Amino acid sequence: MAQSADSINVFTISLGCPKNRVDTERLLGALGPAMVPVDEVADAHLALINTCGFIQPAVEESVNAILDAVRDAGEAETSTGRRPVVAVAGCLVSRYGQDLRAELPEVDLWLSTDELERWPDMAAKALAAVTRADAPRRLSTGPAYAYLKISEGCSHNCRFCTIPSIRGPHRSRPVAPLLSEARELAAQAPEIIVVGQDSTSYGSDLGDGNTIKDLVTGLAALPGLAWLRLMYLYPAGLTDDLLAFLRQIGAPLLPYFDIPLQHAHPDVLGSMGRPFARNPRKVIDRVRAHFPEAALRTTFIVGYPGETDEHFEHLMRFVEETRFHHLGVFPYWAEDGTPAAAMDNQVDEAIKLARRDALMALQADISREIMETHVGETLPVLIEAPSPEWPGLYVGRTWFQAPEVDGVTYVSAPPETELALGTIVDVEIEKADTYDLSGLV
Q: Mind giving me the DSSP string for 204-273?
């Protein structure tokens, strides 16, 4: 596709969490209306790789993406005489910046998370172009949803986590600019998804007028917003007072609770240094007392140093009894610089993987049973994209399916009906799989 001489062609890869994606979108927005997304490094003026450095697999994925971009940029220079600017951003830069600079001199621009506000200017200088620092974001998520990042960093001291050392302490963005940004997002997408390292800590560093209640009240009143989804709700912050407040908010707030528990056994939780009481069943019961219909999502780490067979069996029983809608399981990775990495009682890699597989097999059965309860129901489904499998088939999500981490709902429409992307339609559910639903308009 031909571009104007004034366009800035940008190739992007945003790895890791939605918070990274928001940082990418802000930089793209700062490039202004001249920014044109492209699918190949060879077609780009700027190749941006926003990295994740949280755990070793994410580090390896990020390094591979950088190497691919550097290779493609070199090939473009050889064939066309023009080499794209290669920019590497995000958590990997903050964690291993000096080493990366020494190992990868081919990278033109390094953007660490402690200089987020300077990214547009740094990119502008590299491109010799003019940018607008207050420009709106350029969404990369399509017409269905947008992430709203409400805070940066984390002040907890979990012994396995690198986030505080990479992104610094918890820092909330004030309510007023967040609501201004959210109005623009709601004009582009019907669902806003609130993300932060610990969303329930929002405003604890700001004071009156900038609490999580103030923020949710403002977001829920936005015109055009159909769904409001809160992610990263730490257990300690889900008090009866907050839950009662969320209950009375009602629509568009979804009864979807993403609660990163990480384990269920009190000994393991204590060793992890998790910032809440050691009985996670209490927070689950508390949520369900206020929201009996709640969809619950969580993540667990298996193979943490010192985790015994008894600890793991306790976790298995907890999952079987709790019946989460959605569950992510990660084998523990000993990350450099974390206290847990220096512990003596590391668990064998084969045991970690076996425990992950066993827990995911248990969850697969639970998920299928939950999905099957919806067969015959009519559910609201947010249409995200046409399916490439055949005409008239669309991919969407119902209210208990968050993007990128949960299952999807496949929607079949009559041949003469074209479903508009970013709209919510009523779908009669006809089939359930392990994680996905299928139905008809």
A: TTT-TT-SHHHHHHHHHT-TT--EEEE----GGG--HHHHHHHHHH-TTB-SEEE---B---HHHHHHHT
Q: Which helix (H) or strand (E) holds 194?
A: strand 191-195
Determine the Cα–Cα distance for residues 40 and 45; give it in Å rounded to an integer: 10
One-letter amino acid at 89 equals A
* Residue 133 in this model has a pLDDT that exceeds 60: no
Buried b (16+ CB within 10 A) or exposed e, 164-187: bbbbeebebbebeebbebbeebbe
SS3 (DSSP) at 51:
strand
Q: Where in the chain is the domain with CATH 3.80.30.20?
A: 145-372
Return the beta strands (E) in 305-387 as ranges: 326-331, 378-386
Residues 265 and 359: their CA atoms lie apart, in Å, by 15
Question: Looking at domain 378-440, does it have CATH number 2.40.50.140?
Answer: yes
Q: Would you say residue 129 has pLDDT above 60?
A: no
Confidence of residue 277 (pLDDT cuts 50, 70, 90): low
Average pLDDT for 412-420? 89
Task: Report the 10 Å Cβ neighbour count for 342.
Answer: 12
Distance CA 141, CA 75 (A): 29
Tokens 């998804």 — which residue?
A: 193
Confidence bin at 258 (pLDDT 50/70/90): very high
Rounded distance between C-alpha atoms, residue 342 and residue 324, angstroms: 32
The span from the CA of 103 to the CA of 307, in Å, is 37
Show Cβ contacts of residue 285 under 8 Å, excluding neighbours closer than 6 positions.
Answer: none
Contact present, 326 and 367 (Cβ < 8 Å): yes
Q: What is the pLDDT of residues 312-340, one digit of tens each?
A: 999 999 999 999 999 999 999 888 888 99
Q: Which residues contact 87 (CB under 8 A, 6 or more apart)?
A: 46, 47, 48, 49, 107, 108, 109, 110, 111, 123, 126
Instruction: Return the ∠ at Cα 54 (arms to 19 and 332), rounded to 5°.
Output: 130
CATH says 145-372 is which class?
alpha beta
Q: Do residues 200 and 241 touch, judged by C-beta distance below 8 A?
A: no
Question: Which H helix or E strand runs over 94?
Answer: helix 91-103
How many CB atoms sit inside 10 A of residue 260's CB?
Answer: 19
In this structure, which topology does domain 8-127 adopt according to CATH? Answer: Rossmann fold (3.40.50)
Distances (CA, A) of 337 to 53, 97, 293, 345: 13, 15, 41, 17
Where residue 163 falls among pLDDT bands split at 50, 70, 90? confident
